[in-house]
Design brief:
Chain lengths: 83, 308
């Protein structure tokens, strides 16, 4: 069964982590936004976000996969598929 | 207080110049810069693929030209009134900064940086070297780990970000034994920039710079060497040569920007990296990443308001 509704929890968690790592205000972070083009979050910060997600949620995203995560929704989906 | 900053290599993406060509006059300026660089910067900035524009011999003049045309769209002719802002560049961004501050003419800056790019590409081919981002961890432990492996801290970017440079063997050794709590990330660069491995490139740059007659900066101008304001054009040019083998102290530059009371940071294209760093290192400032002509228009409004 495909999850069609994003859990509010995952989005809020990702928003909070993005804010902690990059100081991008939570209201600017919506699922369709791309890290680099829309949020000015560069690839090194994306690595830090992945580390924080790993530490907080236990979800490990290997580097090879990380390069393919370009939007906020990509992270949310990645978190949800590991639950 | 406004700061205008030019980024270093890494953020350029295929086609990033395409929107700028729609602005009247930009194509002509890029054609002039292409002459200075000996490269077709228009094609490189619009059609070339990621690998082509990652080549440092291409990236350096391309980034410099991109920053300059964006600045010209915002401020008009750079030989006109002095830009009412503190100016700084990150690594290769220091060449665009030289032109923004009036130390070099824009075409001179592009010609000089093209030589730097060619020379660094060649120096990178001598020994296999590279760079690695070290994110987080305890700063003292990170420094000790770099020293232990014979690596140089080539960039100090602030916000817990250090870029290590050295031979591929040394980098591999660090990856095998990373400092506690730090995450490592290889950078797609051809060599260990800002380390002694680039010495042959520094010599070539020194030779190319010899015949230039720099002017003193017309705006406050920061130096990557130590984050201080440089008031002599000749000194700034000398430092451009020294910086080829010396670490970028962007952390010190950010400290100086904070001390100067900078409230707004405008980053020229390909923008994003420095605004990103400033969010953490310069809390309370507003960042403007200029990526398109529309962004340039918004920044022009900012300056109009601030100079009233």
């Amino acid at each position: 069964m495909t999850q069609t509704q994003t859990e509010p929890g995952a989005l809020e968690t990702v928003r909070r982590i993005i804010f902690t790592v990059t100081a991008v205000p939570t209201e600017q972070v919506s699922p369709e936004k791309r890290f680099l083009e829309d949020l000015d979050v560069d690839s090194l910060s994306v690595v830090e976000i992945a580390v924080a997600i790993q530490e907080e949620l236990g979800v490990l995203v290997p580097d090879e996969e990380l390069v393919q995560l370009t939007t906020v929704q990509d992270f949310i989906s990645r978190i949800e598929t590991s639950r | 207080m406004l700061a205008i900053v030019a980024p270093g290599q890494g953020a350029q993406t295929p086609g990033f110049l395409t929107p700028w060509l729609e602005v009247p006059g930009v194509r002509r300026r890029l054609a002039a810069y292409s002459e200075s660089a000996g490269l077709d910067l228009i094609t490189l900035g619009t059609d070339a693929d990621a690998e082509t524009i990652r080549d440092t011999a291409v990236a350096q003049p391309l980034l410099t030209a991109a920053a300059l045309v964006a600045a010209e769209v915002i401020f008009g002719d750079l030989a006109g009134p002095a830009i009412p802002a503190v100016v700084a560049g990150h690594s290769v961004g220091e060449f665009a900064a030289a032109a923004l501050a009036g130390v070099l003419r824009p075409e001179e800056a592009v010609a000089l940086v093209a030589e730097r790019g060619r020379a660094m590409a060649e120096a990178s081919a001598v020994t296999p070297t590279g760079m690695l981002a070290v994110l987080g961890g305890d700063p003292d432990e990170v420094a000790a780990a770099l020293e232990r492996h014979g690596l140089v801290a080539a960039n100090h970017n602030g916000a817990g970000q250090v870029i290590a440079g050295g031979t591929t063997g040394q980098l591999d050794a660090l990856r095998a034994a990373p400092p506690a709590g730090a995450r490592l990330r290889p950078l797609a660069v051809a060599g260990a920039f800002h380390t002694p491995h680039m010495a042959p490139a520094a010599e070539r740059l020194a030779a190319a710079a010899r015949d230039l007659r720099p002017e003193d900066p017309r705006t406050p101008l920061l130096s990557n060497h130590d984050g201080t304001l440089v008031t002599s054009g000749a000194e700034y040019l000398r430092r451009l040569v020294v910086q080829v083998t010396s670490p970028v102290r962007w952390d010190a530059c950010q400290d100086t920007l904070a001390g100067l009371g900078v409230t707004t940071l405008v980053e020229l294209p390909p923008a994003g990296t420095l605004v990103n760093l400033a969010r953490r290192a310069l809390p309370g400032t507003t960042g403007h990443a200029v990526k398109t002509p529309a962004d340039a228009g918004a920044v022009r409004e900012l300056f109009a308001v601030e100079t009233v």
